[in-house]
Amino acid sequence: MLTNAKQKKKVDIIKSILRKEGLNIVEVLDSIATIDASDVLFTGREFFVGLSKRTNILGAKAVAEAFPEYPVSLIKVSFFFLVLVLYSYLACASFKN
Known about the structure:
single chain; 97 residues; disordered C terminus
């Protein structure tokens, strides 16, 4: 859900560019669903969606519905060492020995 006019304008610009490139746009119609791009990782074979303060289960469900041909795995992203989004978890995981 867009929170302000400035954010909506950015989204409209991005949509326009994607349409010009011939790409499909999938919109989340559920007004309660929230999803942040930094909580979504596509490996080429499956999606990982982080459930965080910015992405809820309805947003994750929207990803699964938009791409039914790919499995979607959920990862609970909690407030741990200031990690807020899935990408931060993955960056931390990559530094482990």
